[in-house]
Design goal:
Elements (H helix, E strand, L loop, with lengths): L15 H17 L3 H7 L3 H11 L13 H8 L9 H16 L12 E5 L2 E6 L2 E3 L11 H12 L3 H16 L2 H8 L1 H13 L6 H5 L1
Antiparallel strand pairs: 1-2, 2-3
Helix pairs in contact: 7-8, 7-9
Amino acid sequence: MSLTKTPLKVIGVKGGRKLDVLNDAIDIWAEETPTIIEQLKDSISDLEYISLISKYGHPMKVPHDALELASLTALYENRDEEVEIEFSCLIWHVFSMKSTSLESSFGSNAYDGFDWGRDGSVNWIKTNNIFITVVGKNTESTELPAKLLEALTHWHPHPHKLLLAKLRHQMDEQGFSIANMVVSKRYVQASWLKELLSANPRNDTNASLE
C-alpha cells in the first residue's frame, strides 16, 4: 500500500448499525471523560499509525497485541463498564481520526515502489528510482557512505535490485551499449553480484553502493 496518498479509502466499517453503536459508545465515554477523544487520538503517534497502516493495510487487520497499541489498550481496559465497544472497532475509530488529521500531509499522487523504514537512527525512503536516507547535519562527509550503506542494509533489497542499480550506474558511465553485453553474459551478472555481496564496507564502501 502506498502512503504517498492519504489512506482514507482503506478505512471503513461495514454496516450502518455497527457504526451507530460505535458512535453511541464514544458519546457515553466522552460524557464520563470529556478529554477521551484527544486521549484516544494521542494514544497512537503519527509515526506508529503510518507504520501500522503500511504494514497491515487496514486497521481491522492490526493485531490487538501490537506494541504500538499499548496506550490505546490501557485506555480501553480502564474504560467505564457502561462503554460497550469492541476493541477492533475502537482501533478503527482511532485510525479514522488519525487519517483525517493527517490528510493534508499526504500528496495526491501515488509512486510506484514507495516504501520506507526506520530503526533507531537508521531511516530511509524509496520509490522505484530513488533511495534517500536522512542523517544529522553534523555528520562528517567521510561517514556518509557508511550511513547510506547502513540504510541500504536495513532496507534489505533483493539481489536483483542491486544488479539493476549496478547496471544503471554502468549505463550512466559507459552508455546504453553496455546493457546488451551484461544481458548476454551471465558470468558478468554473477561477478557483479559477488562483488556487491562480498564488498567490505570499511575498505570498499563505494563499490557496494554503485
